[in-house]
Amino acid sequence: MPGDTLITSENDTDIELDFAGVEDFQENHKREKHYGKRRNGDRQQNKRENQRRKRSSKSVQGIREESQSKTERRERSRRRKGKAEHETSGHEGNKRERDQTRAKSTKSKKNIKNEKTRKLEGKEDGEAQEKSEKGKLKLVCAKNEEKIESGDQLKEKEKALGVKKKKKRRKKVVETSSEPETSEDGDDEEEVNNDGEVRPELLSPEELEKLKEAVDEKKKLIQSLRGKPWPMKQKLVTLRESQLFVEKYEGALGKGKGRKLYAYKVMMTKKWMKFQRDFENFKTACIPWEMKIKEIESHFGSSVASYFIFLRWMYSINMILFGLTFGLVMVPEALMGRPYGSIPRKTVPRAEEAGAMDFAVLWDFGGYAQYSVLFYGYYNNQRAIGWFKFRMPLSYFLVGVGTVAYSYMVVIRTMARNANESGIGDDNSFNFSWKMFTSWDYLIGNPETADNKFASITTSFKEAILEEQESRKDDNIHLTRFLRVLANFLVLCCLAGSGYLIYFVVRRSQKFALDGLENHSWWERNEVNMVMSLLGMFCPMLFDVISTLENYHPRVALQWQLGRIFALFLGNLYTFIIALMDAINLKRKEEKVVKYNITMWEASLYNGTGSENSTAPPITIHPADVPRGPCWETMVGQEFVRLIISDTMTTYITLLIGDFLRAVLVRFLNHCWCWDLEAGFPSYSEFDVSGNVLGLIFNQGMIWMGAFYAPCLPALNLLRLHVSMYLQCWAVMCCNVPQERVFKASGSNNFYMAMLLVILFLSTLPAIYTIVTIPPSFDCGPFSGKNRMFDVIQETLESDFPAWFSKVFSYASNPGLVLPFILLMVLAIYYLQSTSKSYKEANVELKKKLQMQNEENKKKNKQAALKAQMDLEEARKSASQTAVHQRNNNDSVQRREDDEEIDNKNQRMYHGRNPSPSVGNREPHFPVRDPGPRNAHNGNHGNPRYLPGFHQQSEPRMCRVPSLERH
Amino acid sequence: MVSPAIALAFLPLLLTLIIRYRYYFVLFYRAVLVRIWKDCVTGLSREERAFQYVLTNSTPGDPDSILDAFDYWSSKVEFISNIGPKKGKILDRLLMEQSPLTVLELGAHCGYSTVRIARALPLGARLYSIEMDQGNAAIAEKIIRLAGFDDDTVELIVNPSDEVIPRLRSDYNLERLDFVFMDHWKKCYLPDLQLLEGYGLLGKGSMIVADNVLFPGAPKFLRYLRKCGLYEWKIHRATLEYSKGIRDGMAELIYQGIK
Fold it and tell me: What reactions does this protein catalyze (chain B) (predicted)?
């Protein structure tokens, strides 16, 4: 047989290994000893049983001995060889004793191995016997047998376990010795599997049958493992081993020709799964910054990570905004529009030409930067540009509208998705259970953070308990209230102060602007931005300090903090916008004057020329010399760009000074300082989630507001986000410490989104207001010469579309049609709203129902248990009385076997005889019954026959998670 | 020239810093400024002033009244870094539970903690107190005698701790220390602990209590504790003595030996 050669070759290596790997052997030996101890007890029983068996089925056994499976035979031969080898090597003095013990143990192991095969047959025997025999004899017999068999089974399992472990270990060693690089687990397993797939071809049908039986046995064992009265560790080990066994040999049991196919299939599924896993990894690697964020999450908890996820999301949105503006506005104008210097709006005026390339000017986005595609004023009002008639003004307008519309859509869609995820959580009920089972953040991978999280969970428990007590006690509420009111008052004062400061600064800057900016220093010119940034940076700190007065839960405190910072930023932003409005009005007044002057200037020009020679061609004036209006749109765009720049700068500088410098000082001054800087006074900074998120949101708001007048804003913002992603990731990992109170960010995501939506709305308001009410400048921008900016749509409709289309459009925009449509939409919204509300109510109802049912089930179970107990007591009493009548009763029991009542009686009788049976022992007393497809948790009480009280329980138990054993 | 508005924008930062670190400012004022001023005015050292106050305001022979006088002086008049009443209670409890027979105190300063420990000791126990500074030691001696503890109970050793510890076994016939209280230089915590280990003065179950491990702080000491695994240890969190807002801790170590 080809198999034999294969086996012997393998054995050879094994033996050599045994010889070499003394340690390995020692360990095996130890384990065997350990098992041996347990086995000794069983052995006597087995002997008894075996003798009995031998009488009845000697011949069968003989056959069996002959036809032992090849695997076992191999095992044996291997062991034998190993033994021999060790005996020969036993000359080495101190090893001898050990070897002898090993030999003994292997012998005993062999015995047991035989018994295992016998046992299988014995079970069948027992069943046959039970079917044939009747009466008391049968009962006793069955009992004994079952007892023995259960013991046997246990032992057999351990046995198989040991054997298999050994086998595996050997295989592992073989592998490592042959190719030491590939000692990974996965490879090992594959090896084992391959073995399992290859081997069955060498087996005879009988052996296959046996193997099948063994696999079935294992499967049964897995299913009924839950009910076994073993320690958890043993259960786990057994489960793992059995699963391995089943996995290994199940593939071998395909039939005939299909076997190979099956093996192939299994192999392919394995490969496919591996590929899928790799592909998942690849996909994760493809998500930008995913690994960075995960690392931060593992160090700082999910609340900090949520900021970075938000940042990434923002980045993706800005990417699209940038794509729109860049692709449809800036690039066409730069490529196809008139070049720089061709018309006045595209040329730096003569007065500014000298310093137009200075860095200070460019940094302020004046000079050449102002007269470029970056700003509104550069664009020409030519209707179509380039060889394929790109409608520039229309595109400009539509992109402006489209970016805002897209942002709305995305934000609302994300909000809706988040709302779905958050579901219906009522935070008030089951407060402690929630805390108990859900407070751990499983993404934490850093011991320090884990410590912090642990501490925060404990404190949260303490606080919750205190809260519970206090809610009952209800004292000191006045003080708390007073403190909270006081805190809010202080915050309001702070807000008012900062608002006034900004107002003051803006007024001053207007004065400066009237004087002429050149006369003032850089500080004074940039005062507004500086003050706004500084206030936006420092006031939140003050709020944070004030909020310690209030003594809120950190999550609530975070929301308050967010709300306050929101108010602050909003106030600042709107002060800024109001100031801008004033500036716009000033510019428009100036524009009127300039317009008048220009007509005068042109008239004088023409008059001057006309007097000399009326037919001469018009004098060409260099576009830099042409007088021009102030172009308020560009001014607005510039202001926003400056604001963004200064904001970014402040953020980065704060990061570098507040976090990095501080961390460096703390780290390196700690050696020579009189107190512990790291743990005590300055310490390292924590990552300020709320401030950063709000900064991001307001930044985005400014982008939305200013993007219409400065198409470069999305590009700038993209740059900023990109840089801050890397910078902040680095700063967080290098100079921040995990928050002392790590809390999960759950639920706050939608809070951020809601704020973003509000900001979006608030930032589109001024933009829309300016677009709708203020006429565009007369000599700059794509809409120059029009009365309003949106006139461009009408113009396009009239000139670019066929007549019928504009007719249809005019009909469609008829108020008689629009109003009903709006009405219909309102109705639809109302309808959807009410349906969703009713769904929510239904959900709540269902939840309540589930809860009720649960409670009822619990009650029922309790009652059943009580009843069972009473029955038991009763049975004990009656058993002592009716000891004489037992046998008669038993007869009747056997006749009506499937009747439950009688089973109960049976049970009682049994209890009468043996007054302290454990639940686990009770199960195998009725070996006739096939345990069947028992559920995991039903192992004990699911089958109503075994426990008298539980046959009432028919409803599914919802509180349990079914089939846990599969995990 | 920076405009006033920008300067005004820094006001919230200033307020924040002042509010957040107010306890540290108060501590700085009390422990440094007041001390310098008083030193100049009276010409006495801080410890001498404290001793004068205690001498006039306490009952001789009554440790409790001496401790109370100290506490009052340190919290109301000036600041002196004793262990303080709150952490002192923890120390008392530990001493009661342990009831050690040989106690070593590193850093007697002006005798407050010495009196505190001696008060809680069982009969027949002996306290060795090490103080480096000559002047402080003289005052500590006076305070200890004032509290009514004689040479048999408390032995004051005037020498730096790193010189005394190697000689403890030879000069003082010490085999094993049951209890060690550390309150001297925070930088010496770790070397002294290692010295104690090295000279085999710690037995299984010996307790070591180290004060001020968080606020002035002994980070190396704590790091060593985390790493070495010789001790079962925990930190009793409290506030700095005579101050409410500064967090501090007392480390309690039980020597387990090498397992």
Answer: a catechol + S-adenosyl-L-methionine = a guaiacol + S-adenosyl-L-homocysteine + H(+)
For residue A113, give the nearest of A78, A156, A161, A150 by alpha carbon: A156
**Residue A128 token pair:** 């046959």
Of B116, B39, B49, the residue nearest B83 (C-alpha): B116
Query: Is residue B10 less than 8 Å (CB to CB) from chain A?
Result: yes
What is the CATH topology of the domain spanning B85-255?
A: Rossmann fold (3.40.50)
Q: In whole angstroms, what is the distance from residue A629 CA to residue A349 CA?
A: 11
Determine the residue of chain A that is closest to B25 in CA distance. A681
The CA-based angle A306-A309-A312, given to 5 degrees, is 155
Chain A positions touching B217 (Cβ under 8 A) are 675-676, 678-680
Cα atoms in the 13 Å half-sphere on the side-chain side of B213 = 27
The pTM for the full model equals: 0.65
Single-letter residue type at B230: L
Q: Which of A501, A546, A675 sits opposite B8 (nearest CB)?
A: A501
> A776: which DSSP letter?
P
Closest CA to B190 of B152, B224, B151, B144: B224
Confidence (pLDDT) at A833: 93
Please give the single-letter amino acid code of residue A479.
L
Residue B229: which pLDDT band, with cuts at 50, 70 and 90? confident
**Distance (Å) of CA A175 to CA A716, A820, A825, B27:** 59, 80, 72, 69
Q: How many residues does chain B have?
A: 259
Which residue type does B66 have? I
With contact defined as beta carbons under 8 Å apart, do A405 and A324 qualify? no
Closest CA to A508 of A493, A526, A494, A496: A526
- Pick the residue from chain B with its C-alpha nearest to A521: B1
Structure tokens at A406: 């897209």
Closest CA to A962 of A943, A939, A946: A939
For the segment A855-875, the average pLDDT, to the nearest whole number, is 92
Average pLDDT, chain A: 72
Pairing of strands B102-106, B126-131: parallel
Does B8 lie at the interface with A, CB-CB under 8 angstroms? yes
- Distance, CA of B207 to CA of B166 (rounded, Å): 19
What's the burial of A559, exposed, middle or buried (CB within 10 Å: 0-12/13-18/19+)? Answer: middle
Q: CB neighbours of A192 closer than 8 A, spacing ≥ 6?
A: A168, A171, A244, A248
Kindly state the tokens that stand for A635: 């001014």
Mean of the per-residue pLDDT values of chain B: 88
Partner B contacted by A530 (CB < 8 A): yes
The DSSP letter of residue A355 is G
Cα distance between residue A898 and residue A906, in whole Å: 12
Contact status, residue A639 vs residue A646, Cβ threshold 8 Å: no
Q: What is the DSSP string of A880-940?
A: HHTTTTHHHHHHHHHHTTT-HHHHHHHHHHHHHHSS---HHHHGGG-TTS---S--STHHH
Produce one character per residue of A671-699: b if its CB has 16 or more CB atoms within 10 Å, e if not.
eebebbbbbbbeebbbbbbbbbbbbbbbb
- Model confidence at A749, pLDDT cuts 50, 70, 90, reads low
* Interval A532-553: pLDDT, tens: 888 888 888 899 888 888 877 7
How much is the average pLDDT of A807-829? 90
Q: Whole-angstrom Cα distance, residue A302 to residue A65?
A: 63
Which ipTM did the prediction report?
0.77
A317: confidence class by pLDDT, cuts 50, 70, 90:
very high
Q: Where are the domains of chain B?
A: 85-255
State how far residue B239 is from chain A, nearest Cα, in angstroms: 12
Q: B16 vs A508: CB contact, 8 Å cut-off?
A: no
Whether A679 sits inside 8 A of B10 (CB atoms) is no
The closest CB to that of A523, out of B6, B19, B215, belongs to B6
* A521–chain B Cβ distance below 8 A for any pair: yes
